Amino acid sequence: MEELIPLVNKLQDAFSSIGQSCHLDLPQIAVVGGQSAGKSSVLENFVGRDFLPRGSGIVTRRPLILQLIFSKTEYAEFLHCKSKKFTDFDEVRQEIEAETDRVTGTNKGISAVPINLRVYSPHVLNLTLIDLPGITKVPVGDQPQDIEYQIRDMIMQFISRESSLILAVTPANMDLANSDALKMAKEVDPQGLRTIGVITKLDLMDEGTDARDVLENKLLPLRRGYIGVVNRSQKDIDGKKDIRAALAAERKFFLSHPAYRHMADRMGTPHLQKVLNQQLTNHIRETLPSLRSKLQSQLLSLEKEVEEYKNFRPDDPTRKTKALLQMVQQFGVDFEKRIEGSGDQVDTLELSGGARINRIFHERFPFELVKMEFDEKDLRREISYAIKNIHGVRQVSERTGLFTPDLAFEAIVKKQVVKLKEPCLKCVDLVIQELINTVRQCTSKLGPYPRLREETERIVTTHIREREGRTKDQILLLIDIELSYINTNHEDFIGFAKALALRDPVPTAAHNACPPAALSRLPSLQVIRRGWLTINNISIMKGGSKEYWFVLTAESLSWYKDEEEKEKKYMLPLDNLKIRDVEKGFMSNKHIFAIFNTEQRNVYKDLRQIELACDSQEDVDSWKASFLRAGVYPEKDQTENEDGAQENTFSMDPQLERQVETIRNLVDSYVGIINKSIRDLMPKTIMHLMINNTKDFIHSELLAYLYSSGDQGSLMEESAEQAQQRDDVLRMYHALREALRIIGDISTSTVSTPVPPPVDDTWLQPA
């Protein structure tokens, strides 16, 4: 092993320097053989320590998984008592015997539960050796009647792995043709590529006999042949004969024996180690191409960064000026791309920048307007009060000519228009928040220069806040302009005559009772929205919550099994439907809204309302906006009077009621015109005064503000993290080059041994 240790250490060191582990996954070496064949002695020779239990009969009664780990200090530890380190290997033997007895008892019982032992030493490679119980056929002591099959299954479990080398140990004083170890190896390794025959106890053969023909691979050939070894006898072990002396005695035996001296260099434990070393070397060489490919791809990915850093001088003022200009320019480009949209660097996880602002303009803001607009009960009550207050003590009568709808109309319209201020200002606040978030996202690329990032954020955010005041003033001015003159001659305004006609419709087929909301709906066949929603309030007895594919048109809401829209589950007409919010459940992470019938009818089966669940509040708001387009509006709470009782907003006076209806129609028409105008002007005003202005500011003035804010050198000071990252990249680059050089050295300094040619091993029949 001494030859391989420096080679593997070089590889490990090269990979450690780049913060990675070198996964060589060296093969396991499993020792298989009959009882007292000398398996444990063969293993001990690898470790160079005397630590395994010895004796006659079945000694190894549990598999011992021995992990050898290269370390500067020498000690052992067991998996079942990790906290204890064993430095005396006699204690290791005693612990193996005690742990074996603990599970199997003291009367020759066996167990498939392995003992895991780790040996740390400067004289070993990172290898796994497995000492398996000896093959036996006759049960003794507490052993079960099927002991032969239990041991066989246990051994097969370990030697079936393709990455395990099999040492099939057979004593020389036993008939090789009946070797169970070789037969089992033949089952799992029919080509003989990973089986090495080991012949032990050559010194115990009857006088006048030898194993020459076997060791020369002539009598009963194996593809990888046989290696003879001479282990210590029980007398040697009892006499504390150390392993080095035993190896010297083994060498002397092969050199002095007339049948083996001509092949002494191919016999003995050192040669067995050499053969195994060559197998491990072959394995390492087979692993090198994939390791080299991995390192080369990492090196290639670092080339561009390293090219920038090679001639990098942190304190060069020319570099700082150039970097500042590039950073500010890139910030402006990134900001514009996030607002205007672009094909590169698209966020696929959530809406951002311009897409979110667009959603505010065309979904959130219209929804806020409609929520405010359709408070029907309040509006009718206010109209009623306005008419009564205008008449004062006089009787309300259309016939007396004292009914002046224009005064009541103007009072109500102005009150409705004033209510627009709140959603308009809220819209500005939402856009500002999105702009500031966009600025923060764009400055993330300035992370290497924390002072520059901080100043850029501060300057641009301050400018946005300044523009906020200008934008809000302009929007309030737009609303004040609308309040200053009520244009009843507007081409879209229905006028007094049409309002009366709507109040008292001619009973013809063309004027069947149709709510104003329905008149404003889109063509019935147009699909407004499609998407997945969960019906949240179906009882568990009826299947529980379930997700469906919903299709919303101007006339109905349908849901299907899936997006192919072949299997329709239900179609719900939109007449008399409204929307209300539903509080999120304690354990639910869904956001919910409900659809119900204003006439207290069941909406779906026995449900008075359908609760529809989405994954986010944004999805809920978006669906609500879609329902608004279809003419389904949000519910409003019934107002209460000062005494807390619900007030009847409909007058018992039919004349007053007709007047209220007339003005209601006029207000509805004019407020619709105002809303249309505001919905059009709001995005334009915000875009002009805030968004486009901020883009121009970044492109034309930001650099000047940065120069005036402080010393350029302090602005372009690198963060400690950036300097560390640069050093790490350069260190990684040089470590990768060194690792590739070491791999190249290993490739040239080691040689692969070709696989021996196949032999006629038909004599060996699988067990």
Low-confidence stretches: 398-402, 506-524, 637-652
- CA-based gyration radius: 45 Å
Which fold does the CATH topology of the domain at 330-502 and 665-716 refer to?
Four Helix Bundle (Hemerythrin (Met), subunit A)
Span of the ends, CA to CA: 33 Å
Proportion of residues in helical segments: 40-55%
Textual characterization of the structure:
GO terms for molecular function: GTP binding; GTPase activity; microtubule binding. It is found in: Cell projection, Phagocytic cup; Cell projection, Podosome; Cell projection, Uropodium; Cytoplasm, Cytoskeleton, Microtubule organizing center, Centrosome, Centriole. One of its GO terms (cellular component) is midbody. InterPro entries: Dynamin (IPR022812), Dynamin_GTPase (IPR001401), Dynamin_GTPase_CS (IPR019762), Dynamin_N (IPR045063), Dynamin_stalk (IPR000375), G_DYNAMIN_dom (IPR030381), GED (IPR003130), GED_dom (IPR020850). The longest helix is centred in the last third of the chain and has 47 residues, at 654-700. The protein is elongated. The strands form two sheets. A nine-stranded mixed sheet has the order 4-3-5-2-6-1-7-8-9, with helices on both faces. The chain is 49% helix and 13% strand. Among the domains are: 30-151, Rossmann fold, CATH 3.40.50; 330-502 and 665-716, Up-down Bundle (Four Helix Bundle (Hemerythrin (Met), subunit A)), CATH 1.20.120; 527-634, Roll (PH-domain like). Strand 8 (195-200), helix 6 (212-215) and strand 9 form a beta-alpha-beta unit. The protein is α/β, with parallel strands linked by helices. The chain starts with a helix and ends in an 18-residue tail after the last helix.
